[in-house]
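PROTEIN–LIGAND DATA SHEET

This sheet pairs a single protein chain with one bound small molecule, flavin-adenine dinucleotide, given as SMILES. Inputs appear in the order they were entered. The predicted three-dimensional arrangement of chain and ligand is reported afterwards as a token string under its own label.
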Amino acid sequence: MRHTDVLIVGGGPAGAACAWRLRQRGVDCLILDRQRFPRAKPCAGWITPQVVRDLDLVPGDYSGGFTTFPALVVSVRGFRFRLPGRQHAIRRGEFDPWLLRRAGVPVHLHKVRTVARVGGAYVVDGTFAGNYLVGAGGTHCPVYRTLFREGSPRDRGSLIVTLEEEFSYPHTDPSCRLWFLEHGLSGYAWYVPKTGGIVNVGIGGKADSLRASGDRLKRHWVLLVDKLDRLGLVRGHTFRPRGYAYYTRQDRPDVRRDNALIVGDAVGLATLDMGEGIGPAIRSGLLAAEAILNDSDYDLRTIPRVSLLPSRQRFLAGLRRP
Ligand SMILES: Cc1cc2nc3c(=O)[nH]c(=O)nc-3n(C[C@H](O)[C@H](O)[C@H](O)COP(=O)(O)OP(=O)(O)OC[C@H]3O[C@@H](n4cnc5c(N)ncnc54)[C@H](O)[C@@H]3O)c2cc1C
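PREDICTION REPORTED AS:
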């Protein structure tokens, strides 16, 4: 049996941020992940300046591609405007391994199946034990499933379904574009050009709205591909999108049971307006680490519930632009 102070299930942004903070303070931790990094993770890779600050990330020190947009080009039901304010994009295939490396903790390739409480410790698959257990396994986190789901089921109404693809493409339009609420979709589509000739396109919408109207996300994907072609943004590419589902912010989720804590998508923390999940995952990982280090409350109320609404002034400034 391998014993550690803090056993972390999942090495995505939530688990890596938690490990990074714990390691900085000399706590012994071990990350278990079922996938070898770099792993395929459907994600547009948009990060806010707040994420850069939370991670003390100096773009010059970051080894992967780092794209900065001075503004977002937004369209809401066909009404177009620029939303000023610096935003960034990374590639998850580079960003997540970088976060893990920087955390500096051992990562073990292992798919977690069972979680048990034995005496004072948490035991995973009879092989790994920790005084604390952090569930950072994303939507399908086994820690959430075993210890939290029954008492704190996620709200099915907050499930987002997505289709996404990232690929090499010699893009000529450098603007990050978002199209909201088109063709009856309760969600939005995106085009994110990244440094190094990479483009990420995708679409996401609320699962229950699609179901209620008998609609399918695939129909919206076809419309998006057609739009990209019409606007000259992506032409002649054979798309092979991947699907993934995750949850936006839950109301009063149960996030701690004794010394077991859950973070990131395992809770369901993505923002209500944009489905931004990387920042909330990192913040929750850091907060979980602080709660363990200080033996204090683990409280997620300081994590913003929305991405864009706080920037009302920026939004209005954008509308006033010619
Ligand atoms: C198409 C799409 C686009 C998105 N775009 C953005 C965006 O632009 N910006 C943004 O902020 N957010 C975006 N998000 C959301 C964001 O990707 C997630 O919120 C974020 O990855 C959550 O991080 P996490 O660490 O909680 O989980 P994850 O990144 O999912 O990491 C969980 C880890 O746990 C591991 N794991 C799972 N089960 C087990 C197991 N049984 N045993 C061991 N390991 C396990 C997995 O292998 C994985 O590495 C997007 C999501 C999707 C689907």
